[in-house]
């Protein structure tokens, strides 16, 4: 078999890794030996049209459309506008007291009438974000097996491998098959299989994939295959907040098993009932997936890694950022949104970023990702080397303050943060010793910013800056009310999951939501409209600056360091424009020539959920 080098990896030419870029119908010679799905396209009408979520408009079909599309009698006589439908649905949603019921009602709507789902989400973003996203999506993932109705997204599991194995074992029983088995033995890896799975997805022109392996879902831990709620939720925001077409979004869950005993013993669990595959088996499946994605959708498809455990997240990002357009939302998206908040907060607390001292609780993806981006930005502003600027950033993990005497035993991503200091075990003691101006929680463990910790922060800071970033709400390091009360109304507070405004001593405090949802939709849109082929840190810095620039004086007057989500589409267009500008500047854009007005261009590329008229 002919062999070629792709991205430095030796591959069999005929087995789905060379040629055939975006060859979705299997027309290139490189894909001659592959199985092809015989897709057909037809015009929906009548009963089928009402059950097609992409085209269904419910009672909004007008008289002409009802005649032309064989809908007479299939709908009651009344005609409702999209606005009236929206009003009715919001009214119905508000009747549900239980957040999970609202989530399920929204998912049903998405399955039934996609445009109405997005219209609702866009027009009521502040109210519905906590329903389709954190915190409710966390509970939905925990109970995904029980509330599962229709499958969403694409499942890529090790099961394909075992079906393969079974087939080969049966084959072995028959001597005449040994030759066939021997010939195919090389295919015992997943090669070829993932590409086939991708080809089962009905949409061909994919621009963004959000993929998880379910091992670290928010702060909730290993939820295995039930993590699918996260890619589905994130991609709903790509469309609603960032304007990426729903048909261009592909949610993927890679199922390699779960180590969650509760799920393994749950009769309603939807995933593979086996312990997680690791090492070579895991890496081969991921490699197969990444190759197949590039093969099927080309160089410009964005792959967003979401909620992988630390031990895989850093490696996957480092490995695939060389060869693919990849972005890790938990490392890079969270870093970019926090940096934006800090840049905006400087207007409130004064001084430059380099004048501040930072202490993190949590040294995983979010913690080290944010720390590194802050160090980079200070280095950019002060021209000091990043090795120097890192020294004003301190991290605490489950074993205490990260100090140089612990260096040998630290995971590689923690090593740059091991500074000279005596060992310190408890967070509160680290706060008292280091005296940070900014305290950031990213450990995924709730209630760790105790009264003592917040009081210590408030004892040496006029305006202590406190970010409780862990999700969902139950895992937040402290509540907004606690932060404002324990700091006697002086804290500048933001959290990963939303909190309602708090009244303290007769004054209303509006907490910010430092969630990566501010960044990834606009960031992704910027990559798409410029045709970016790689992600660079400078693009993240551009996104942070663009977001910080969107905070108005009116927002500052309320103590806000993030603009409200109400204007998020406009904000996303500005982020997209700045990111795209950076992509062009770095020579990594493939959509040429560069449009003059990138904000206008970004806006014009955004999905509109308004019903279309049918001829
Ligand atoms: O999903 C969210 O709300 C933010 C996030 O990426 C995480 O917590 O993993
Ligand atoms: Mg995440």
From TrEMBL:
Record-linked SUPFAM superfamilies: Aminoacid dehydrogenase-like, N-terminal domain, NAD(P)-binding Rossmann-fold domains
Keywords recorded for this protein, A-Z: Membrane, Metal-binding, Oxidoreductase, Transmembrane, Transmembrane helix
Membrane-spanning intervals of the chain: 165-184
Annotated a divalent metal cation binding sites: 306-307, 330
The record's free-text note on cofactor binding: Divalent metal cations. Prefers magnesium or manganese.
Name of the protein: Malic enzyme
Cofactor entry: Mn(2+); Mg(2+)
Malic enzyme NAD-binding domain segment(s): 331-584
